[in-house]
Amino acid sequence: MTMNRPLVVAGNTLREALRERLFYNLVVFALLLILGSLTISRLTLGEQYRIIANIGTSATQVFGTLIAVFLGVGIVSREIDRRTCYPVLARPVSRAGFLAGKYLGLLATLVLNVALMAAATALMLLVYRGGSHSVGVAFIAAFGLMTLQLAIVAALAVLFSTFSSPTLSSICALAIVGAGWLFGEVRVFWLQAHDVGMKWMVQVLDFVLPNMGLLDLKEAVTYGDPVTLASVAGRSLYGACYAATLVALAALTFSRRDIR
Amino acid sequence: MRRTAQLALLTLALAATTTLARARLEPEAQAASQVRNPAWLPDGRLLRAASFGQRLVVADLYWLKLVQYVGETVLSKTQRWDALYPLADIVTDLDPRYGYAYEVAGSDLGGVAHRYDEADQILLKGMKNVPDRWMLPFIYASNKFLFEQDYATAAAYARRAAEVGNRPHLALLAANLSALVDTDQEYGIALAFLDQALAQAEQPELREQLDLRRAKIRTYQVLSQLERALAAFRRDHGRQPIALGELLGRYVASIPEDPSGGELVYDPIAGTVQSTRIGPRAPIRVTPK
């Protein structure tokens, strides 16, 4: 029964998220973009496939990130502002269990969102190519790892929301995700630098920032690169552990917070 | 009722004004989106870092801009192609594996814009980043052959295209280009490459073509050696030799057989030599405009 309580909280969180207008606005916009990719691809010269695939994966990633941040930052702070967490916490539910439940509910929302957008992208690719050739292991792995990217984004949003306002939490979460992407691009150049301090900084940032590039297989979808199970498993382990660490930190912060 | 009519009239007037304004502003808006000054284009590497993981889709956006730029420049007949290379460079900085972008930019910069250095740069960048794309060395070879008359480089890259793409039929093109170079060394390379292609080729038609080309190149090599000997004889004696036998000793060690199976015929008046089967040595040449 005790184990089920976070799952009950998760179920409620999922239902709440599915009632959010913002969620639907973003999902509809992303779906329109994906469905419109077939028309956009006609503007190009040759290789229309890559435009459809790139719009599909990028729209899922960008809109998924926005959904994860904007739903994630409100997940704890709104409960405290509306005082709706008090009746729940008054029951035998630990604060850590409450937070884990909220996070799992958010994660379920993101999984649904990614599945919907992956289906729309697959539909567009199938319409364009007229066969199952384009939707293979790389496609499934890319969208699977994208879910883990969003899990990290959501965990960051939840972590910040345990001690900060929703606006500031959104800014901080998006800044760290952006820094994670940026660092992935400049990391190689910094490592080539002769400055010893740079290398030390790279090591610190490697530990602190999420390496979003490790969870990114968009290129494999665009170019049909082979994807090995071992590689996907390793990347998934990294993403899952990073997100879990953030959730654990969030639970720790929330447990120590004075919410009277 | 009167109020409703007034409101409807106002709505219609507003809609009409909006339509008129849009029609008037549209050319201005279209002109604003055109690439006029390439100096305004961003650095591809900076753009890549700032794309926050969306570099593929940003590359696609710049690719669409490039396609639009090529179309507009062709239609306007201005022959101002200064933004084509910077745009292609941005696209391929963002997505270094975008093989098709290298192909289109490389062939347009060479064949349409006549900016050969830029065509070389983008194609060499492509061959470095997408080494398995045979079209890139093929376009490079075509540019060198058609526009720069650099036959040795063209032949080398045609051979590279044949090897990369596992396309033995390209050895036929490479051999023709080597014949234009007209040196013993280049004939030797062409013959070795034709042998290699023959070993790979499976279709009987292709094997037959390669065999014929081999005989032609070998004959051209022999004809070329004799032509050089005849020229040296003329230089030394101020006249044409009466027969090829006069060349023996100082100019050639022996009079060779015709490798194509025919006979080598010498015309003492014109001072030319040719094969009864292949004809005179006449590699395919393109006259530059």
- Report the β-strand fraction of chain B as a percent range: under 5%
Order of helices and strands of chain A: HHHHHHHHHHH
In total, how many beta strands of chain A? 0
Task: Look at the helices and sheets of chain A and give the structural class.
Answer: mainly alpha
- What is the quaternary state of this protein? heterodimer
Keywords:
heterodimer, A: 260 residues, mainly alpha, globular, B: 64% helix
Task: Annotate the secondary structure layout.
The complex is a heterodimer of chains A (260) and B (289).
Chain A: H1 4-18, H2 21-41, H3 48-72, H4 74-81, H5 85-90, H6 95-129, H7 137-161, H8 166-192, H9 196-208, H10 218-223, H11 229-256
Helix pairs in contact in A: 1-6, 2-3, 2-6, 3-6, 3-7, 3-8, 6-7, 6-11, 7-8, 7-11, 8-9
Chain B: H1 2-32, H2 44-49, H3 55-76, H4 84-94, H5 99-111, H6 116-129, H7 135-146, H8 151-164, H9 170-181, H10 184-200, H11 204-237, E1 264-267, E2 272-275
Antiparallel strand pairs in B: 1-2
Characterise this structure:
The complex is a heterodimer of chains A (260) and B (289). Chain A has 260 residues and is mainly α. Chain A has one domain. With 289 residues, chain B is an all-alpha fold. Helix content of chain B is 64%, strand content 3%. A two-stranded antiparallel ribbon of chain B has the order 1-2. The relative contact order of chain B is 0.06. Chains A and B meet through helix 3, helix 8 and helix 10 of A and helix 3 of B.
Summarize the structure.
Chain A has 260 residues and is mostly helical. Chain A contains 11 helices and no strands. Chain A starts with a helix and ends with a helix.
